[in-house]
Amino acid sequence: MKNLMPSCCSYNTSIFSVALVSLLLLSTAKGGTNYTITDLGVLRGTESDARGINDRGEVVGNSTSPFLYSNGQMHDLGTFGGVFAYAEGVNNLGQVVGYFRVPGDPGGPATDIDHAFLYSNGQTYDLNVLSGIDRADSSAAYGVNDRGQIVGWLDNTGFSQHAFLYSHGQMHDLGTFGGGRNSQAFGVNDHSQAVGFSNGNTSFGHAFLYSDGQIHDLGTLGGPISEAYAVNNRGQVVGFGYTVSFSQHAFLYSDGRMHDLGTLGGGYSYANAVNKHGQVVGVSATTGSFPEHAFLYTDGSMLDLNNLLLANSGWILVSATGINEAGEICGNGVHNGQNRAFLLTPIRQKR
């Protein structure tokens, strides 16, 4: 399930009175699934961006300010007094994490800094404050599990970032590989396993799995670089890795090895999320006129989600950013020329 304040307020119905729902017919793609597609709308302006989804079908993302899409409405979470804010993850309790930007102090450091936040039950919490960390230190949160544990990164040296796991009011530094300076964490499961990337004694980063108090190097697909973005409760990890030919490919780490998921025909791909069934979603380059398409990897095959939609639907699905246990998918596409967040809901599973 990727990819932080005052009480929610319902989104501007003067712009969109209801979310636009289109029933789209299945193409002839083998092994596909029928979906309904919901345009999540916008808060203000014309664009929105989805970042994550929980098992209740609630979606978080950004449209001028962070939103939580729930019960058919987009709720504005505000910017928490900052210059701007971004929502990045949501758990099954409806808790949202992300970061907001704090203006620089005219009497001190003038640089704007980011603070990780937790939005829970209509209240916003600054993780720097909760953890007793200097407010001048930058931080960002990207994932939250159903135990309320949060992962992200913290910069408290001015020159390096370290991945953290926030648990029971404390922000725990996950460290780096030996000799490394930087690490970031993007996903966490309900067993307190966290994933991200870290560099070691070189400038190249590798995907890691943090488990049982240790940070484990997951390796690459043969090239120099890899990053991990999500982990399910089975310990399966997804992200991207470079191959020996320096192509960037989505991977699924399972059963102790990194599996190359390939592409949709183009030169690169990366995976954003994985559910308990091992279904993976992400982005891949294509050979078509539109350079990137959202994909679903299931039953050993990478499917272009656009091929599952009715022709001339008005949609181009560009990226899939989250998938829940029911197979609902959130992501971003172009709808009638506008960049919009979407929710795909399966209406018939493969037999």
Secondary-structure blueprint:
Blueprint: E1 9-10, E2 20-24, E3 34-39, E4 49-53, E5 59-63, E6 65-70, E7 73-76, E8 85-90, E9 96-102, E10 113-120, E11 123-126, H1 127-130, E12 138-144, E13 150-155, E14 162-167, E15 170-175, E16 183-188, E17 194-199, E18 205-211, E19 214-217, E20 222-231, E21 237-243, E22 248-254, E23 257-260, E24 269-274, E25 280-285, E26 292-298, E27 301-304, E28 315-323, E29 329-335, E30 338-348
Antiparallel strand pairs: 1-7, 2-3, 3-30, 4-5, 5-6, 6-7, 8-9, 9-10, 10-11, 12-13, 13-14, 14-15, 16-17, 17-18, 18-19, 20-21, 21-22, 22-23, 24-25, 25-26, 26-27, 28-29, 29-30
Envelope shape: globular
SS element count, helices: 1
Strands, count = 30
Strand content: over 45%
Give a short account of the largest sheet. Answer: 5 strands, antiparallel
Structural class: mainly beta
Overall helicity: under 10%
Through-space gap between termini: 24 Å
Radius of gyration: 20 Å
Explained architecture:
Residues 1-31 have low confidence and may be disordered. With 351 residues, the protein is an all-beta fold. The longest helix has 4 residues, at 127-130. It has a five-stranded antiparallel sheet with strand order 1-7-6-5-4, with no helix packed on it. Strands 2-3-30-29-28 form a five-stranded antiparallel sheet, with no helix packed on it. Helix content is 1%, strand content 52%.
Keywords:
351 residues, mainly beta, 5-stranded antiparallel sheet, 1 helix
